[in-house]
Amino acid sequence: MEAAVRGEEPDRVPVWPQIYAYAPRVCGMLFSQYCTGSRNLVKAQLEALELFGYDAVGAYPDITIEAEAIGSRVHVPRDEIPEVREPLVVDPSDLDSLHFPDPRQDGRMPMVLDSIRMLVEKTRGELMVFSGFQGPFSLCCHLRGLSQFIVDLYTNQSFARDMLKIVKEILMTYAEAQIAAGAHVIEIGDSSSQMLSPHQFREFAFPPLEEVMAAIDSQGALSALHICGDTNHILDDMARSGAHLLELDTAVNLSEAKQRVGNRVCILGNLDPVGVLLQRTEREVIEGSLSLITSTAPGGGYILSAGCEPPLATPSENIRAMVDACRRFGAYPIRRLEA
Amino acid sequence: MKLGARSGELEQELTSSLLNMDMEAVKRIVRENLEHGGDAQHLLSILMNGMRMVGSRFESQEFFLADLIMAGEIMKQATAIIKPHLSASRQTSAGTVVLGTIAGDLHDIGKDIVKSILFSEGFDVHDLGTDVVPARFVQKARESGSEVIGVSALLTTTIPRVKEVVDELEKVGIRHDVRVIIGGAAVREKDVALYGVDAAVNDAIEGVRIIKSWTRRASTK
Fold first, then answer.
1. Local structure of A135: helix, strand or coil
2. Same domain membership, residue B192 and residue B104
């Protein structure tokens, strides 16, 4: 896995179906148990790993961890994914009193750090442990409300930049704590930035992202950038953010992406999570996986996955089929299919 | 002659302010024009035409989702200024739609995009927010005389609950008066048959197109 993330050719294409929220389903655990206790999270992660046999584990319970530690009210349903209830920064002046969280104390950040430590210990350095957080732009959207933060980009740009700067500092501290706990890959999910124009992405989302990536790199860890949806219009900037790994969704043609940015970053993706993984048969999952391997894996720097996390209702046979396909057809050198 | 030239100027200035996403300019022009006795209906139709241009620039990828959201916000604020100046008889509505995210689901981005577009197309939209129980959709549709219920659901676990909306409509005997459309990234065409809805889409623009085709049909009945 590490060789692939560093852009090299390993013995076999690694496979990591982004099993985060899906993990508790595997062992019949409620989501609210999974995302609030490190022992539960680790148990579910290890059971899912045992069942499927892919090449990584993840300590990233859900996307509300950072907003919650800063002070947002978060709704944790019994068996669904938690959500930020309402904006915390209602008036721009609220920014001045924003709580700067201590990852060892605030919200569920300590629980994530514990989970990282336990997963590192249990996997004995044989597997990469992914952790991560929401990217600066997406976290601003959580804290300010999505529509309002978009409006800020047009009407109050200096405020938007200030907010991004503060949030970036918070995330850099959290990244440092995750790396100190032993996380190998810090995955930054900045999917709200997919809505921006290329110019807006470069002006607002990119600068803090680049700084966070550089900080991660300087501490010897690897970084991943996850932006779902159609990212064709920002792909080149994503690649020059300093991320080692780009997680690309189904709307991006992976072999084209490999040509455009594959010399700079490792690429992970991108079987259709709904159209194939959720709704099709094992055979179609295998066919889709094979086609991705033959088109994108040659030369290395590729990890097989879906375009995003598997939907919670995905049949487990289909996840297993993806992993099996990788084991059967993913050994290097990859034979290209003749046209 | 002179008035015509001024009217053309107004149209150009207002449209270009909207396309430049200049919220303050749009509000200023609208306010000034109304203060000088301008025609509220005319202002509204200029802005609605401008929103159509925003939509087509989005489809041609000249504009992005952020632009769509911003234009929707501008339209919302401008309309709030214009509405009190419309005479009752001229407040023509393209139709009335009840919108909401189904119970158990708190995702509102898709719903809000649909709302902005419907709004800019001249619809009256009753937004029930997120985590809405099925009966509430029906109750609101009855109260407001809406001909369409739009249910948003992102989670694959919440999509099936749209059937309860359909069942409730049947229970209160207005299934034939109200059409139901479900929208969300994981929604597929097969959900129409599965849950007995009238349409199922995973694309906001397509959803609005379908709603418009229904209300057009309704109005020519």
1. coil
2. yes
A40–chain B nearest CA distance, Å? 22
**The domain boundary residue, chosen from B26, B56, B90:** B90
Q: List pLDDT tens digits, range A93-131.
A: 999 999 999 999 999 999 999 999 999 999 998 999 999
User: What is the least distance, in Å, from the CA of B168 to any CA of chain A?
Assistant: 25
- Mean of pLDDT values over B114-120: 81
User: Sorting pLDDT into bands at 50, 70 and 90, what band is B215?
Assistant: confident
What phi and psi, each to the nearest 5 degrees, are found at residue A266? -80, 145
Q: For A233-289, write each residue's pLDDT tens digit.
A: 999 999 999 999 999 999 999 999 999 999 999 999 999 998 899 889 999 999 999
Count contacts between A and B (CB, < 8 Å): 59
- In the predicted structure, residue A79 carries a pLDDT above the cut 70: yes
DSSP H helices in chain A: 2-5, 23-26, 31-34, 38-52, 65-70, 109-123, 136-144, 146-155, 157-181, 198-200, 206-218, 235-239, 254-261, 282-296, 316-329
Give B-chain residues touching A154 at CB under 8 angstroms. 21, 23, 70
How far does chain A reach from its first CA to its final CA, in angstroms?
A: 29
Question: How many CB atoms lie under 10 A from the CB of residue A236?
Answer: 13
Give the residue extent of every domain in chain A: 20-266
Radius of gyration of chain A (CA): 19
Give the rounded percent of residues in chain A with a pLDDT score beyond 90.
90
Report chain B's mean pLDDT, rounded to a whole number.
86
Cβ contacts (< 8 Å) between B19 and chain A: which residues?
none
Read off the pLDDT of each residue in A154-173 and give the average, rounded to a whole number. Answer: 98
Measured in angstroms, the CA of A86 and the nearest CA of chain B are apart by 11
* B70 contacts on A by Cβ (under 8 Å): 150-151, 153-154
**Measured between alpha carbons, how far is B215 from A324 in angstroms, rounded to an integer?**
50
* CATH number of the A20-266 domain: 3.20.20.210
Q: Is A259 on the interface with B (CB under 8 A)?
A: no
Specify the pLDDT at position A287.
96
Nearest to B156 among A153, A155, A278 (CB): A278
Nearest by CB to residue A313, choosing from B70, B73, B156, is B156
Residues of B in contact with A194 (CB under 8 A): 65
- Which residues on chain B are in Cβ contact (under 8 Å) with A153? 66, 70
Cβ-proximal residues to A152 (8 Å cutoff; 6+ apart), any chain: A92, A144, A159, A160, A163
Q: Do B188 and A147 touch (CB under 8 A)?
A: no
Last residue of a domain, one of B61, B90, B119: B90
Q: Given this model, what pLDDT does residue B91 score?
A: 57
